[in-house]
Amino acid sequence: MTSLVARQIGIPGRLQRTDLDVRSGELVALVGPNGGGKTSLLRALARIENASGVVAVDGEDLDLAPLARRRRLLSFLPASRDVIWPIAARDVIALGLDRPNPTRVEELIGLLELDLLADRPVSRLSTGERARILLARALAGNPQILLLDEPLSNLDPYWVLRIISILETTARSGQSVLVALHDLSQLPRFGRALLIAEGQVQMDETPASLVASERFEQVFRIHAAEGGWEVSCQAGPRSSP
Amino acid sequence: MRLLLVLLLLVAAVAHLLLPFGPLREAHAVDPGLADLILIQLRLPRTLLALGYGATLGISGAALQAMFANPLASPDISGASSGAALGAVIGGYWLGLTQPLLLAACGAAGALGTLALLVALAGRRADTTTLLLAGLALALAAGAATSLALALAPSPFAFYDAYDWLMGNFADRSLAQAAAALVPASLASVLLLRRAHALDLTALGEDVAASLGLRPRRLGLEVIALSAIAVGACVSVAGAIGFVGLVAPVFGRSISRGHPGSAMIPAALIGAILLAAADLVVRSVPLDRPIPVGVVTALFGTPLFVWLVVTMRRRVTA
After folding, report:
1. Are strands A74-77 and A145-149 parallel, antiparallel or unpaired?
2. Size of interface A-B (CB pairs under 8 A)
């Protein structure tokens, strides 16, 4: 079942107008070089800034959805991990809920192993710790669509694998998850991948065929090699990755 | 903790109204009506102004700090109080306005102009250095312009008059003046308090707030306009008082568990208590002439401000 329908969404100067459909339960990766437009696509879907076009979640126009309803439909995790106020971690998670639900907060504290951090001010934690707390906030309301900008950056290898598995579980429960990421080694875990460069969606494929494509090599200026990735010889006209 | 604050507020209010008790007792002995007159005509406006102005500084300080995402934003450091003083001086000494409500409007306009300039100079969510420098520049410019406006004012007594008022003074204000300050300030404060949850959500960043359906840009403009109205109206009646709007929200947030928007109510209670206490100090100091209440808040506020800057620096370098 299609859960997210975006038509003609764009951000002037950053993201050319594009259409996108995401089915319920899909785990979608957004990859591309720095400055290519991954974050802009997520922001346009989250209706931030002067995003054009229309985004509907389960048939409901996001721009017209009442405030309380928005949290059920969509949640956005920005790449920035900054929280300047000394709010306790558990209170930050609770900000993702439209009404108090201590059971749900405890559930997320357990899921992301935050027990020892839960009562500490989030502004004084490490970036990696804040990343987990902010992800918990994004997951809290069980939104239909999760838009996550670089949720795997600043995390140690254990947490990269744990969070991928949490996102897989989330998708299996019927939520749609869109993840902007740089760590290409995690791509095979996704069901679908979008290649975004120069402010537009260049490819929409399975991760395997995306990585194998010529366009991927042109855009990233790297190619798959035995045991990892190698810089391609030919320098393309792209922005630096 | 909140209950303790409410109790402290009640104690501060009663103490402010009744102390010093001697003159009241003497007046009552002569004529009970005279004591009532002193209480209602002289002391009540002063108590209401001290509590109301303090609460206003707490609320608008907390709202501005939440909006600028910076614990050093406040009506005085952003230059809003100085701008309000300039507005009121122009209204009173150049336009010849005498109606308290019109002067309050001039104060609000001055504060609004300064805050608008601050956003234009430093941007919203400015880093601490930019905010402090831009605010300092605006406060100095508004202060200089106020001095100039007073020096060139048609009234030869303008400078002398203004000394008693500019640095904060609650003495000899009428109930009408108190109302001119506190009615607009209360209305604006109520509207600010209604934005508490939205301001709490901006703690997660403007993008998250926008994705939740809020409009951070509009919220920012509303906070600026409402703070300017609230502080401007108070400044026009009781002068510019520093540090309360900076310090009260800091303690307010320790009660709201760090939430910047929910800190507004505790900050209001703390601001009211602080300013009533400062004015009690003014009244109890045995000096030939009264010292402005702003001098007392600055004397106590400066060490707190230094402490705040030092702890912030430690946190940044840690």
Report:
1. parallel
2. 67
Residues 6+ apart with CB under 8 A from B75: B57, B60, B61, B64, B81, B111, B227, B231, B245
Q: Give residue-wise pLDDT tens across range A141-187.
A: 899 999 999 999 888 999 999 999 999 999 999 999 999 998 888 89
Q: What is the ipTM of this complex?
A: 0.86
Contacts of B73 in chain A (CB under 8 A): none
Q: Using a CB-CB distance cutoff of 8 angstroms, which residues of chain A are in contact with residue B205? A: 78, 80, 82-83
Per-domain boundaries in chain B: 2-317
Q: For chain A, which domains are there?
A: 2-231 (3.40.50.300)
Q: Tell me how far apart the alpha carbons of residues B185 and B268 are, in angstroms, rounded to a whole number.
A: 12
| Amino acid symbol at B289 | R
Length of chain A: 241
What the block records as the tokens of A219 is: 């855009």
d(CA B251, CA B190): 20
Residue contact A49–B210, C-beta within 8 A: yes
User: In this structure, which topology does domain B2-317 adopt according to CATH?
Assistant: ABC transporter involved in vitamin B12 uptake, BtuC (1.10.3470)
